[in-house]
Amino acid sequence: MPFFEFLAGSISGAVGLAVGHPLDTVKVRLQAQTVYEGICHCVAQTYSHEGVLVCAPIDLVKVRLQGQTCTNRYRGPIHCLAVILREEGLRGLYRGGMALALRDIPCYGLYFLPYEVTRKALTEAGEQPGTFTVLTAGGVAGVVTWAFATPMDVIKARLQMSGAGGRQYSGVVHCIRVSVREEGLRVLFKGLLLNSLRAFPINAITFLCYESLMKILRPPGE
């Protein structure tokens, strides 16, 4: 039933986000700023200064909260939202929205293809996929998807941070042009390793939760 699929998807997605959120913070900081020497340095600096908690209700607020290195600008998600509305207006809430759409629309279309291909490849004909198969297929799906998503994810993060003291960009094309000119093509793959490291466990757990919940919620005989 669609309701059970929605419920299973919502719960499994929440579990996946909870698992991957700490590394997501590090990813945003590496992509949007140049003050970190690498993954280990960014992790050490982030947690030594700010601890483990980060709150992120929506993507823009999430990126702003994750990207700030001064702990006094935003006191939390509600305060961050209020500051954005006060300083940038309603339009400010949609900063980076085009880059977000360009990242998510094609990648959501791609997302389930590697999952299904991997799952079928690891499952014997006539058998149900086991836990290892679902975990592996989900992890592969996440890594493949984020490999395609990372370039636009970098641009999205930079556009969203531009209203919070970051470099100012007039749009997606301008951001790409300036970023590539100043840092080379490799800038578009900034955070790719970290995206892959976080994508595998997040999506492995997400798909396992979904498949497990559907077995519980699906009516007998379906």
Automatic annotation (TrEMBL):
<keyword id="KW-0496">Mitochondrion</keyword>
<dbReference type="GO" id="GO:0031966">
    <property type="term" value="C:mitochondrial membrane"/>
</dbReference>
<feature type="repeat" description="Solcar">
    <location>
        <begin position="32"/>
        <end position="121"/>
    </location>
</feature>
<comment type="similarity">
    <text>Belongs to the mitochondrial carrier (TC 2.A.29) family.</text>
</comment>
<dbReference type="InterPro" id="IPR050567">
    <property type="entry name" value="Mitochondrial_Carrier"/>
</dbReference>
<dbReference type="GO" id="GO:0022857">
    <property type="term" value="F:transmembrane transporter activity"/>
</dbReference>
<keyword id="KW-0472">Membrane</keyword>
<keyword id="KW-0677">Repeat</keyword>
<keyword id="KW-0813">Transport</keyword>
<dbReference type="Pfam" id="PF00153">
    <property type="entry name" value="Mito_carr"/>
</dbReference>
<keyword id="KW-1133">Transmembrane helix</keyword>
<dbReference type="InterPro" id="IPR023395">
    <property type="entry name" value="MCP_dom_sf"/>
</dbReference>
<protein>
    <submittedName>
        <fullName>Solute carrier family 25 member 45</fullName>
    </submittedName>
</protein>
<dbReference type="InterPro" id="IPR018108">
    <property type="entry name" value="MCP_transmembrane"/>
</dbReference>
<keyword id="KW-0812">Transmembrane</keyword>
<feature type="repeat" description="Solcar">
    <location>
        <begin position="129"/>
        <end position="216"/>
    </location>
</feature>
